[in-house]
Amino acid sequence: MSTTSGANEQRGSQNRQSEIQPIAMRVPEACRYLGIGRSTLYVLIGDGEIEFIKLGSSTLVLTESLKRLVESKRNILRNAAEDASRICIPILFMPSRWPQFQRP
């Protein structure tokens, strides 16, 4: 094996390793992942919206749980936007029907 093919194999191995997604992450990484604060994350954990495990003294947040949370919030917004687009409230601008106020 030549040194160039060995270097290419090593780079390919590094690329495959970077594609591996973590199953769980610590609280600070989970906060960065979602772009939220630590206390908000703990509220979501307390509400049961995010799954976690304790491994020794470490709290590990399940990555799949974070993805599900984002997707569920995204679907809620998408459904709300669709519902809002179906609601049609005609506004009639008919000054002739407005009550006439007389000045004293």
Short description:
The chain is 56% helix and 12% strand. With 104 residues, the protein is mostly helical. The protein has a domain at 22-71: Arc Repressor Mutant, subunit A.
Relevant terms:
single chain; 56% helix; 3 strands; 104 residues; Arc Repressor Mutant, subunit A; mainly alpha
**Major sheet details:** 3 strands, antiparallel
Biggest sheet, spatial arrangement of strands: 1-3-2
Count the DSSP helices.
4
Helix content: 55-70%
Note the overall shape: elongated
Overview of the molecule:
- With 104 residues, this protein is mainly alpha-helical.
- It has a domain at 22-71: Arc Repressor Mutant, subunit A.
- It is built from four helices and three strands.
- The chain has helices at 3-19, 27-34, 38-46, 63-86, and strands at 24-26, 52-55, 58-62.
- The chain has a three-stranded antiparallel β-sheet with strand order 1-3-2.
- Strand 2 (52-55) and strand 3 (58-62) form a beta hairpin.
- The longest helix has 24 residues, at 63-86.
- The termini are far apart.
- The model has no long low-confidence stretch (mean pLDDT 81).
